[in-house]
Specification:
The protein has eight helices and five strands, in the order βαβααβααβααβα. The chain has 195 residues and is an alpha/beta fold. Bound molecules: thymidine-5'-phosphate.
Length: 195
């Protein structure tokens, strides 16, 4: 089973991805995007540097390059071997951040991303919904997107809501307020009921 966790910065998805992967058992691969291969980790460093100015479409292509490498060399082989894969961000992040917040257009980025991942969408995507002000308060503010402030996080949150409607067969929205344990229970329930 292929599960992705999505949400704005500070939504708690990295913590929840770790807990979900542990709950699914030892035959589970936890990956984070961008990253997961040597080349993708190098691209992650580049993208995380707030001092670099990057054209939005170039930014999308960098995320896409990292993702294409990860899908073909790690995710697809793992799924074919029967391993569960839990992704801390995946394709929907590009739709929300580059398509929505960077205004490249959600449907345009959706179709490009479909090509990048060769149609390998997650079986379930858990969207952790949190108020952008709360999320930004939790995030450490160091990466390029967090440092751009509340308006950007609001635009990302809005795009995620649009994705949840467009892909309602795959995306389950989970309330990310409360304790880590409470949210974990909701995530498990969301995965169970959609699987
Ligand atoms: P992180 O919050 O998981 O560390 O992700 C790093 C940042 O990269 C985060 O602010 C979201 C952003 N991002 C995109 O803009 N597009 C993408 O496709 C992905 C995977 C992440």
């Amino acid at each position: 089973m292929f599960i992705s966790l999505e949400g704005i910065d500070g939504s708690g998805k990295s913590t929840q991805a770790k807990l979900l992967a542990a709950a699914l058992g030892s035959e589970t691969l936890l990956i984070r995007e961008p990253g997961g291969t040597s080349a993708a980790e190098r691209i992650r460093e580049l993208l995380a540097d707030p001092s670099l100015e990057i054209d939005p479409f170039a930014e999308l292509l960098l995320f896409s390059a990292a993702r294409a490498d990860l899908v073909s060399r790690v995710i697809r082989p793992a799924l074919e071997a029967g391993t569960h894969v839990v992704a801390d961000r995946f394709a929907d992040s590009s739709v929300a951040y580059q398509g929505g917040a960077r205004e490249l257009g959600t449907s345009h980025v959706l179709s490009l991303t479909d090509t990048v991942i060769d149609g390998l969408w997650p079986d379930v995507t858990v969207l952790l919904r949190v108020d952008p002000e709360v999320g930004l308060g939790r995030a450490d503010g160091k990466d390029r997107f967090e440092s751009e402030g509340l308006d950007l996080q609001r635009a990302v949150a809005e795009a995620y809501e649009e994705i949840a409607q467009i892909a309602s067969d795959r995306v389950v929205v989970v309330d990310a307020s409360g304790t880590v344990e409470e949210v974990h229970e909701r995530v498990i329930e969301a995965v169970r009921s959609s699987g």
